[in-house]
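User: Before I run my own analysis I want an independent prediction to cross-check against. Here's the chain; please return only the structure tokens and, at the end, one sentence I can use as a sanity check.
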Amino acid sequence: MRTWNSPTHLFAYGLVLVALTVAAFAVAGDLGSGLVCGAIVLVYLLAVLAGRRRSQTAEVLSGIGDERTRNINLRATAFAGSVMACVLPMIWLVSVAAGSQNTTAAACSGGFGAAYIAAAAFLARRS
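Assistant: Structure tokens:
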């Protein structure tokens, strides 16, 4: 059985994220900041990978482990998503009240809402 939930795949995905971070800043014309941000992402990735055998928190953050660890990771992700479901619309509403609508927060809120509805519909039919 092939699994995508392994330290090797986590490292590979992390390296792709580092490269995309640096590339996005480079396209915007700020390679120096891109290298700094890419280094921060890389340090976080390495800390999670190195710490996952020594710390339950790092193990949960990695999402790799037994059923218990994956379940805690799923619940933590759901909690973080619930927080963002409140924070994003609040940022948008505050910006509207201040007289300068934040279209990025509005787009993120809409995308989050659409993804949540699609996931709920898909998972409800699947179970």
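Sanity check: The chain is about 80% helix and 0% strand.
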